[in-house]
Amino acid sequence: MALVSTTPPPAPVESPKKVMTAQLAKEGIAVSNAMCEHFAMSRAELFQAVQVAELEAFSDIIERFGVGSGCDICKPAVASILASLYNRHVLAEGRAALQDTNAELDAHMERHIATYEDEWAAVLRDPVRLRQFASFVNAPDTPDPSLAYVPERGQRRPATEAERDAASVLIASDRLEVRS
User: Fold this and answer.
1) Domain ranges of the chain
2) Which of 44, 79, 96, 107 is deepest in the core (most CB within 10 A)?
3) Contact between 24 and 31 (Cβ < 8 Å)
4) What is the pLDDT confidence band of residue 137, given thresholds at 50, 70 and 90?
């Protein structure tokens, strides 16, 4: 005997990019799919263009489809496209220059480490930002009514504006869940 569910399948969840693109389009703001300032097409479009044109070198690709000399975004993407299309190692045959070297990677990591900031420590030092957490810090037994959730597929997710207006929401508990 097979079990048959009477529950309808959940609605597909749209990616944040799709939601943002739709909202910008609704407001009349054009959204570019350009991979970077050197290629006016998306990575998928560039893949197809390179495949159809049967180009095998970055210089030929940027001459035909792009401008300038490339960047940290498009060079590795083109190297990956070439490796995928022609089944050759991504660093072989002059493509090594398209990838970050260890020195460049180390420099990027050093820059990120040097500019790292512990955001929570910064909040704890800033009384104005710390007040945003008053419901949890200063009134531990009072739920924050601005944190509204709805149950979905056995989990909680933030409520939409419409769900808040319909009052079919769960208010956050009076305890801040901390996971380790």
Assistant:
1) 25-113, 120-171
2) 79
3) yes
4) low
